[in-house]
Write a structure and sequence with these properties.
Structural class: alpha+beta
Number of strands: 4
Strand order of the largest sheet: 1-2-3-4
Number of helices: 5
Order of helices and strands: HHHHHEEEE
Largest sheet: 4 strands, antiparallel
Helix content: 25-40%
Radius of gyration: 27 Å
Number of domains: 1
């Protein structure tokens, strides 16, 4: 039994550590592209900043895998757009979700009395907002569209 718990804990730990994409893991993954950069650009990428002229590898290192990829093919060629979203929950208020039932003894009659109390729960909605849009042309960042809040 102890071995199964230990195996389960180790499996969970491996999944947690292995599934995370961090700036360090992306730098290690694309080490050839990153090490070829000067120190100023390396610092910008470590801070998650992207500039016009960056390659897709540099954008990936700085921001990670995009949430969406759009491809536009026209007579002038193929352009790609990477979209990064932010995710949050928005509080909508509370809603009546049912009743809680209590059984108490009436002190006068000494009989059981059922009391119903309303129950309310908080209601949230998942929100997805576009945070940044990176437009590539000829495998280089052509433009950056970012929401300012």
């Amino acid at each position: 039994m102890f071995k199964m718990h230990r195996l389960f804990a180790l499996t969970c730990l491996a999944l947690l550590l292995g599934g995370c994409s961090t700036i360090s893991s992306r730098i290690e993954e694309k080490s050839a592209a990153f090490s070829a950069l000067d120190a100023d650009i390396q610092n910008k990428i470590r801070l998650g900043r992207v500039e016009v002229g960056y390659s897709p590898d540099l954008v990936y290192i700085a921001l990670g895998t995009p949430d969406e990829r759009l491809t536009k093919t026209s007579t002038t060629g193929t352009n790609e757009t990477w979209i990064y979203n932010s995710y949050r929950q928005e509080y909508l208020g509370s809603a009546h979700t049912g009743y809680r039932q209590y059984v108490v003894i009436d002190p006068k009659t000494r009989q059981a009395v059922v009391i119903y109390e309303p129950v309310y729960s908080s209601v949230y909605r998942d929100r997805v907002d576009e945070r940044i849009r990176i437009n590539f042309k000829a495998r280089q960042v052509e433009s950056i569209e970012q929401v300012k809040r």
